[in-house]
Amino acid sequence: MDDHTIISNQSVIESKIDRLLDLLESKTRREYLTVKETADLLRCSTSCIRDRMRNGALPFKRLGESVSSQVLIARIDIDRIIK
After folding, report:
1. Looking at the 3D structure of the chain, how many domains does it have?
2. DSSP state of 26
3. What global pTM score does this model have?
């Protein structure tokens, strides 16, 4: 086996490993996060997250009608503000 074949095979293997890691991550990622989990993920404070929610930059859902109901943030919305 020559060097070109080895490099080509290594590239194919790395590509397949990357694809498997992407699939694994998509299966283990939670669809919704709490304010604290979102802040931890983005390495910022919960007040920063709440500010973004208040000004409409970060959509969220409440699990009840009360202002004290738990808030959940969709992972897809978090991904959008990261990019």
Report:
1. 2
2. H
3. 0.63
